[in-house]
Amino acid sequence: MTTGLSLARRHFLAGGAAVGAAALLPRRAFAGPDGWRELTARPGKASLWEEGGPLADIWGYDGGVPGPVLRIPQGETLKVRFRNHLEQPTTVHWHGIRIDNRYDGVAGLTQDPVEPGAEFEYLVRAPDAGTYWYHPHNRSWEQLARGLYGVLIVEEPGAKAYDRDVVFAFDDWRLDDERQIDTASLGAMHDWAHAGRLGNVLTVNARPYLRESARPGERLRLRILNTANARVLNLRFAGLAPRVIALDGQPVAPRLLEEETLRIAPSQRCDLIVDLPQEEQVFKIDEVSRGPFTACEIVAAGPAIERTAALPADIALPANPVPKAFDMRDALSVDLLMEGGAMGGMREAMLHGERKGMRELVEAGRMWSFNGIAGSHHDAALFKVARGRTVRIPIVNDTRWPHAIHVHGHHFRVLSRNGEEVTREEWRDTVLTDPEERVEIAFVADNPGKWMVHCHMLEHQAAGMMAWFEVT
Ligand code: C2O
Ligand code: CU
Hints:
By secondary structure, this protein is mainly beta. Helix content is 6%, strand content 40%. A hairpin with a 5-residue loop joins strand 18 (281-287) and strand 19 (293-300). The chain binds CU-O-CU linkage and copper (II) ion. CU-O-CU linkage is lined by residues 93, 95, 135, 137, 267, 406, 408, 452, 454, 456.
């Protein structure tokens, strides 16, 4: 089993030069005459190994991977009639949307799973503009690894400050020798106890080598997503001088990427704005965690788009209505201690209300914990809080592994890291914590309902790194 990117790199070097397929434009979603958008989870096929190469069996929304790019104007409601044509129960979760709780799509917490052949109607009201995505919240570790995810774009009102937006959804697949999704290793406990399921093929929009055509001089908004089960990506945009304009959907004060490199954890998003130069040129986007591996490229060719003015340094997106006024004196403070995993110090944890030793936990596939509990939605709430109250969560990563902690239904601000104040104002739905790191977050709990907080390394989530809270 090759779990690094080296297999894909060899493969890419051998096969990449011969391929010249133009990038497919993301399919746009249109609602039917009754205003409902049909969306079906079903088996499909995709060429993940090489362009035009062997077809892998996948599970996809509308049979494709990624699923359709869904777009709605800010403040409006997307009505989705979802059908499950898989052999396994599933749901749809609208990641990062501060949604009405009953449509959050968490099996066992906000809805029953949608059985094979059944349907569920989701009303996705999107208060915030930005880049979001949708994916199952039932056996996520398997269903995402098989291809179930899609991008949801909530459009700002008014004229765009860029020529075009481009979606780059990065994914990390584990393929077997037949170039099929390696289903035999789904649920492999070694992965669960370590970093999670890492793959051997890196794709962008499920393309093994995406070539995005552009015009010289074009001003692009790049919507970058990490949809991998577990792999943290370090993406380098050499020669592009991209400016970050949003993180996890929420606008930030624009700034250049340090060393043109973006570190992005599973489920996080980053919107970049970039002016391509006036000359024809090819820009390679590399994953640099283990030395450069080219993931995709932007090919600027043809007649240039004339630019009279340079990209203004302060090209900011309009603010979203996220509640930002903390009342720290009245805040509810809730510790979140992460423990477990390989090479960690965890000796025991509560499982289904009983104290278990590490060996039993490993046997049960539940070797991670939050506050000493290998959690599931069957456990009691982590906390309950009255609507409108500020919640602060000091998070301690007492493990040897990075974890991407995701909060449902709210965006939070990172207040400090290792005791040091974070001055940048960034509103996130997922924060990456490094081994031994302490990260303090806060948010106004203004969205009533039952919400998950969990690690978005999906194997860690399934193995105990999950809890829920209730806003009443
Ligand atoms: Cu993207 Cu609870 O998940
Ligand atoms: Cu984790």
